[in-house]
Design a protein that fits this description.
By secondary structure, this protein is of the alpha+beta class. Helix content is 37%, strand content 20%. It has three domains: 138 residues, no CATH class; 78 residues, no CATH class; 183 residues, no CATH class. The chain has 16 helices and 15 strands. It has a six-stranded mixed β-sheet, with no helix packed on it. A five-stranded antiparallel β-sheet has the order 4-5-1-7-8, with no helix packed on it. Helix 1 packs parallel to helix 4 and helix 9 runs antiparallel to helix 10. The longest helix is centred in the N-terminal third of the chain and has 23 residues. The radius of gyration is 31 Å and the shape is extended. 25% of the residues are buried.
Length: 545
């Protein structure tokens, strides 16, 4: 728990001294004055309490790079670095010197001495004094100083050694593209997609870069990667852009006489457009209908969790208030799973408000969309104040293991704007695999010489773990408590929850049979109030969530 957070009264009590830092380290230093040019700092003293910039006495027989090399060589021979001790006093001296290096670079950048910045940073890296901000600062100094593109690329690619997540690699790839290193950026986008094939950003960014540099091979790869995934309605422009790029690439291949490549690209596109399962609920009238899908792995795909670890996606929310999509006479909500688990799916249909024409919705379930043998079942389902459930089986799903938790964290974050602790709890409810993170940490530990037996053996071979989800029926009660900012009052909200599923329609794709089971649940329903124990028993009867 978070201990109530003190009523959240002090969350925004931020010290006025806190400000933005351009570097990736804590920057609490004040800008000191420049030291006199005659000060000789070639024999560094780590005991000084003044965090002043490092200055070197000019020597005509040595270049600036050679002077900094000699400085760091003498630094490595000093007692603080030679004894390799982790004692607090020695650690403070080393951190103080790192701060002096940072202050020196800041002074040189302010004076626009970009060659000197390159000299001190590269010398520090050569002699074993790296800091996380150095590669970014080196890249900026090289750009400002007009350094060759090869040197700039080498400096920026060195930041990958400090990247611990795919997000950091993705931002580095975007930065490479922004400074004109498009070839290296495209290579990094491919590496990110290999580590996380379901992440859409590398394909989207790579397509834009490839179109700018006319890289036909990368355009084909990006189009296949984008069209292989299902896209919600608010991101439909990404799919439309990929389709247009694919048509143009196909035309280019055919006009240039590369018929074999065109056929291979067409086959790859056809495979990418295959969908294992598509469920669409369509209705007319002034109403809003929502759907939820319980997948065989136990995950639930809904508007609050539009993309699940089982691969399912809810394309969006539609109602009569929003308007008729594409000028049609009806509304629909669609669930798509490009690569689905084989097993039983449960589609829950819920009327939020309004009246549906004739009191029925049309449910259309299609299996193997885009193949030579698609199977479709279309049925009229009555819908009223109670929820309706449609159960169907999928026997030929192509998915064999769920997506990793980290692969859907961004999509979840877009649709649920809550605190980090709550977000972590919700994502962990839908996936319980940290295999990718464990593998990355294990490899990093092995590279640092901290490998153990577990690192050598690798991660476990668990590829799938079912999560059992219980759908409650009847009456339940949930309560929340909020402490006031002055800690004098506690507000308690008690919320009753009534749910019942009356009709269950079961479709069998193999035999084509369908059955209807009526579940007339009877329960003792009641009301509940806030800040008290007042509850009145209600009449027995059916209830809907």
């Amino acid at each position: 728990g978070m201990g109530g957070m003190g009523g959240m009264g002090g969350m925004f009590n931020v010290d006025d001294s806190v400000s933005f830092s351009a570097y990736a380290v804590d920057d609490t230093l004040s800008l000191g004055s420049k030291a006199p040019a005659g000060v000789n700092d070639t024999a560094p003293s780590l005991d000084s309490n003044e965090l002043r910039p490092i200055t070197l006495e000019a020597e005509p027989n040595l270049t600036e790079t050679q002077q900094w090399d000699r400085y760091f060589t003498q630094l490595n021979e000093s007692p603080a670095y030679r004894q390799q001790s982790d004692e607090p006093g020695v650690t403070v001296q080393r951190e103080k010197h790192n701060a002096r290096v940072r202050e020196t670079v800041r002074q040189l950048m302010n004076d626009k001495k970009f060659t000197a910045v390159q000299a001190i940073i590269m010398s520090a890296l050569r002699h074993g004094h790296p800091q996380p901000w150095m590669y970014e600062a080196l890249g900026l100094a090289m750009q400002a100083g007009g350094a060759p593109a090869e040197d700039l690329e080498r400096a920026l690619m060195s930041t990958a050694d400090f990247s611990q997540t795919l997000d950091e690699m993705y931002y580095l790839a975007r930065y490479l593209s922004r400074v004109g290193l498009d070839g290296r950026a495209l290579q990094m986008y491919r590496e990110i997609s290999q580590a996380n094939p379901t992440r859409p950003e590398p394909y989207v960014e790579a397509l834009a870069v490839a179109q700018r540099v006319q890289d036909l091979e990368t355009i084909q790869w990006a189009c296949v990667g984008i069209l292989k995934q299902a896209w919600p309605s608010d991101e439909a422009v990404v799919e439309a852009r990929a389709r247009r790029a694919a048509v143009l690439a196909m035309k280019t291949l055919q006009e240039s006489g590369r018929e074999s490549e065109a056929r291979e690209f067409r086959d790859a596109l056809n495979r990418a457009l295959v969908r294992d399962c598509v469920a669409k609920v369509e209705w007319t009238g002034n109403a809003d209908i929502d759907i939820m899908i319980e997948e065989p792995s136990g995950t639930v795909c809904s508007l609050r969790n539009q993309r699940t670890v089982a691969g399912g996606v809810i394309l969006g929310d539609t109602s009569s208030i929003v308007g008729r999509p594409n000028g049609s006479n009806s509304f629909n909500e669609t669930y798509v799973c490009p690569e689905a688990f084989a097993g039983r799916y449960r589609l829950v249909i819920r009327k939020i408000w309004g009246d549906v024409t004739a009191g029925k919705v049309t449910v259309e379930i299609t299996k193997n969309v885009g193949t030579s043998q698609p199977k479709t079942i279309r049925q009229q389902i009555p819908i009223g104040s109670d929820d309706a459930m449609v159960v169907f089986d999928l026997d030929e799903g192509r998915r064999v293991e769920p997506l990793d938790e980290q692969q859907v964290a961004n999509a979840v974050h877009k649709h649920i704007e809550v605190g980090r602790a709550v977000l972590a709890q919700q994502v962990s409810d839908t996936a319980s695999s940290d295999a990718a993170l464990d593998l990355a940490l294990a490899r990093r530990g092995f590279g640092l010489g901290n490998a153990n037996l577990r690192n050598l053996l690798g991660r476990s071979a668990v590829g799938f773990q079912p999560v059992i989800t219980t759908l409650p029926e009847g009456t339940t009660l949930s309560a929340t408590a909020v402490v006031s900012s002055d800690r004098r009052y506690v507000r308690i909200n008690a919320t009753p929850f009534f749910s019942a599923i009356r009709d269950v329609f079961t479709f069998n794709f193999v035999t084509g049979d369908q059955t209807q089971v009526e579940n007339n649940g009877v329960g003792n329903l009641g009301n509940s109030g806030n800040n008290g124990n007042n509850a009145d028993n209600g009449d027995n009867g059916d209830a809907a969530q």
